[in-house]
Amino acid sequence: MVRSIRESPACLVGLLLCPALTAAVTLELGYVAAGLVREVRHGGGAGAAGLVDTLVIGCALLVVLVSALAGCRSVVRCLLASARLASWVAENTVRPSGRLQRIAYRVAPGMPVVQVGADSPFAVTYRLWRPRVAISSRLVERTSDPELAAVLRHEWHHARWRHPLGRMLTEVVSSTLWFLPALRTVRQHSTVRQELLADQAALRVAGRSVLASALVKSLAEEEVTAAGTAMGDATALEARVRQLEHGPKRLARSLRCRSLRRAVLLLGAVLALLAYGTAAAVRHGLCVPPF
After folding, report:
1. Of the candidates 63, 89, 83, 71, which has an alpha carbon nearest to the alpha carbon of residue 227?
2. What percent of the chain has pLDDT over 90?
3. N or C: which end of the chain has fewer CB within 10 A?
């Protein structure tokens, strides 16, 4: 895994930059908090206006600190998971069969595909910035030529549109904005949509029966997780089967949730809290200018 981190500049920069930014934010918040405590001790927080300013600044500090820590934790976890998966693939890579190379070239010339010597049938798109497709030897053996082409086309769609990176971004945003539970629904919707769009791409080179057969043969006993896009969790799998049976839908019902209005109102309230807290901290001379 250390080798994979060193070979990925984006991963290395992210692992170094996230803790540094979190430390900078923590130091700034610590300076503001210390100044706020001094002002309260010296009577600067007396009166109704001073009390309101103190409470708002304190709440804003708490929200910013928790968001920074949650976002940093999410970024580091995703980067380490991506490096762990890339390292595992590199350690178990075998020479690709001529059949796999021939079908991969026919599906998408130049597709970066590797074959992994594993007993579990799976196909996965890994790495964040320059995704590659990994397929196990077991799945290559179990699938026919049309089924293998459908699997490769599905994963190539993930790699072409950098879905592992998009999944990481939605994970980081939903973790950073932890006070908006509706973002978890949006994140789940985004993951399902990625799988459905990849299946629609696979249907251009294979029929529904072929794709359904390939999907059944790709169901592994062991899950392939981390930052790549594997066959999908139970929710995505159910949506994929429903699409094969009834055709694609333009918009999932999950986004038409009643909580969306509350999420917008909550986001507005949090932004107002942060804006007022920042203005109050500047007014009381508690902030260190960032430039």
Report:
1. 83
2. 38
3. C
